[in-house]
Design brief:
The protein has about 325 residues and is α/β, with parallel strands linked by helices. About 45% of the residues lie in helices and about 15% in strands. Strand 4, helix 6 and strand 5 form a beta-alpha-beta unit. Helix 3 packs across helix 8.
């Protein structure tokens, strides 16, 4: 598929449209003795704190962008989304803001914090056995009830929405040598990379994926989208996409310099470091880019000016504590 990425003018316009409804999340330089010990004094680590975004993750960017493009007839019929949690919160938020009825399909293993957040926006929740069944149930509900699908990653307008994050980052932190971004289905990585590579082609974009949920890595190796035969297995439920899809895959294939794999224990260690050294309480996916910086990308980014996407914080205290012990 020869997918067309969003242009810089489209990204700029969308950033303006979203600005009144979202936060411009800060960029914070990680500059502590521990950082110097872990990755050296020469590297400059700039954390894009998207965990402070509305709904607790970057997902609001895509959900609002898609919602804005729905027709009045589609809005009147309602929307449906399939999600591990963060996308569901964002869709519920966007739907509530627009006065649109929303149904959110989630796995029974959904983090309780996320479930409460979805329900707080008055969305209807449908639970299925596991994450691999979520997208199929989303499509079934859409067909039966004539609802518009709010896909978690496979929509050009999701990519356009997440591209505003890359655009914002490079405005706040020009002249980056590389950006490290978590990847599941590719909704975030496709948009961020679209913006970064068009603004600064020499800036590397590295995506990081759990080894137990490596649909994008396998798809890139195969040269086409595919489904994980046994489903995803990772503590990072936000990155546990059961498959890749043509549009987002094609954009990732075009713009990503590499996808590296990390283990769950590396995310646990990074969560602990972010909490103890920077007082950031993040979900596993929110620590994935930091885990890659400290692990598989450590030597490749030595002495560089590095953008690190800290993408989300939707986790309850009990789960957060249990993951660190």
């Amino acid at each position: 598929m020869n997918a067309q990425p969003p242009s810089i003018s489209e990204i700029e316009e969308q950033a303006r449209r979203l600005a009144p409804r979202l936060c411009q999340t800060p960029v914070h330089e990680w500059n502590t003795p521990l950082k110097a010990r872990l990755i050296g004094d020469g590297a400059k680590a700039l954390l894009k704190l998207e965990l402070f975004q509305k709904t607790g993750s970057f997902k609001a960017r895509g959900a609002l962008t898609v919602m804005d493009r729905l027709s009045q007839e589609q809005k009147a019929s309602g929307v449906v989304a399939g999600t591990g949690g963060n996308h569901g919160i964002a869709v519920a938020f966007a739907a509530h803001s627009a006065g649109v009825d929303a149904k959110i399909v989630v796995p029974k293993t959904i983090n309780p914090f996320r479930l409460r957040a979805i329900e707080n926006y008055r969305a209807h929740v449908i639970q299925v056995e596991n994450i691999s069944l979520v997208l199929d149930e989303m499509r079934r509900v859409a067909e039966v009830e004539n609802r518009a699908i709010m896909h978690p990653f496979e929509n050009p307008f999701v990519t356009l929405g997440t591209a505003t994050l890359g655009y914002e980052l490079l405005d706040q932190a020009p002249d980056l040598d590389c950006v490290i971004v978590p990847i599941g289905g590719g909704g975030l990585a496709s948009g961020l990379a679209s913006a970064v590579k068009q603004i600064n082609p020499r800036c590397k974009v590295y995506a990081v994926e759990p080894s137990g949920a490596n649909a994008m890595s396998l798809s890139l190796q195969a040269g086409h989208p595919l489904r994980l035969p046994n489903g995803p297995r990772s503590i990072a439920d936000s990155l546990s996409a059961p498959c890749t899809e043509p549009y987002s895959f094609s954009i990732c294939q075009k713009y990503l310099d590499d996808v590296v794999l990390i283990e769950d224990n590396e995310m646990r260690a990074a969560m602990k470091i972010l909490f103890e050294d920077l007082k950031l309480a993040v979900e596993p996916a929110g620590a994935a880019a930091t885990a890659a910086l400290l692990g598989p990308l450590k030597n490749r980014t030595k002495g560089s000016r590095i953008g690190i996407i800290v993408c989300g914080s939707n986790i309850d205290t009990e789960t957060f504590y249990s993951l660190l012990h």
